Amino acid sequence: MMKSAYRTTSVALAIALTMTTAARAQQWYSEMLEGPVFQGQFRQGQFPPEQGQQATLPVLAAPEPTVDGWPADFTRLPPVEPIAHYATEPMPVFSPESPAIGADSCGRRQSAPDWRLRLGWLRRAVRSDYVHYYDWPTMRDLMVGVAAGGLLANTSLDADFQDWYQQDVRDSGTDDFAAFWKTFGEGQIFIPSFACLAVIGGTFPQIPLLRVSGEFGNRVTRSYLVGAPPMLLMQSCLGGSRPGEDSVESRWKPFDDNNAVSGHAFVGAVPFITAAKMSENPWAKGCFYACSMLTPWSRVNDDAHYLSQACLGWWMAYLACSAVDETHRESRTLRLTPIVTPQMTGVAVVLRR
Questions:
Q1: Using CA atoms, how far apart are residues 204 and 6, in angstroms rounded to an integer?
Q2: From CA 217, how far away is CA 290, in angstroms rounded?
Q3: For a tag on the chain, would you pick the N or C end, based on fewer CB atoms within 10 A?
Q4: pTM for the whole structure
């Protein structure tokens, strides 16, 4: 038993060291890309710049003074073409404000979106997702979750909770309720479904419902892309077994099994966590977070996973969705737009939130 415990600890430390090293290297690489590599104005059709490029903003004349400091018809200024654009991260793909998807840089709707530009946005967005997932804060949070899961899995807590739930809580009503929520964890159904939703929403951006649905499907699909590989790796590396499969119960045996993290819990939680992060209403956000925990709970109810395995699946889903959300929150752009009217000549600063 002592040898098994030492081996488990050694493997866990090796995984933590590897992830920390990768996170530090990725952070250094991303900081290097943020340096000023390119100076100069952008030509038309080059918005936004590639990561690492930086615009030299033109200096325009100040507004001509008036009685009130601004012209009377300031709010009715005609739209003009922006002449400068700066962003630390590319605007996410399928965003309704993106000039590559459904509108040009002046806001005019495009009848036929350019798929080349769309794929370019997607490539940069996914790259940014990976940068945020493998940075130090996310790896630190992942190690905290693994440590908490290890405390449950490698003690009697997991087995005691499972025995109590199966004997005193589970009944036919919970089985029926769990059967409904388990369906959301079927990856072979929902992963391609959300990918198709993202494509449809990006193809018809002029329809508001499809545009919002497409952005949701895009975020969910990218969360699967960034979160599924480490989730599958942790399943094998930790080597936990299902209830009743092995005499050691939930204890980790590295590379001996592949159930230490619940895949159903991960797949089923991602859509609801994404919806919560997209919601501004706190009540809706709380409801979506609560729903995200029901698929992991169904695996415990069905005696298919221990509590630690369901919690790890939910936690890895949360970290993946947070990485994607970080990409969108960093895509705020600062636009400088020239203003030329009979009363004034100057520049307007537009911060897009």
A1: 56
A2: 20
A3: C
A4: 0.67
